[in-house]
Design goal:
alpha+beta
Amino acid sequence: CRRRVVDLRAGGRAVHGSTLLLVLMQRAVHSAAAGTWPADAAAETAALDYEDRARRRIRLRCESGFVFLLDLPAVVRLRDGDGLKLDDGRWIGVRAAPEPLIEVPCADPEGLVRLAWHLGNRHVPTEVYAGTIRFRYDPVIVDMVKGLGARPVALEAPFQPEPGAYTHKGHSHG
């Protein structure tokens, strides 16, 4: 539906700029997990960092430069390989973008468990591998890790942390 700007009036006043943008912009109105949408039919790909993959509503840009509005009914944690369906029926593939991370190798299981406890106690999202933990760069957390005797290593990689036990229900320390 194509409209002229002069037709977008509300009670004799011009429509607010953000409202105008929403009317003219393609909207992603549905998300689908990897393997449940036609990935081979993706019209675009959006490389999104960890924070931009956990939104309900935000303006996003695809790798091609195509801009769209993520406009979902609720916050969804998108993962690498998921799809977003535009309101015109086209699909956008989601790719986890590389971002600054810290990797902490642990020499033994006890060191890994100790580090995981300290990170979890601070609600730091983490990726856990055999003998290694990764988290997003944060200078305060890096100093804490060093204080525990670990040797953090900076790297750039996609980040897909453990979703957590309370992902769907929320929790508090009440």
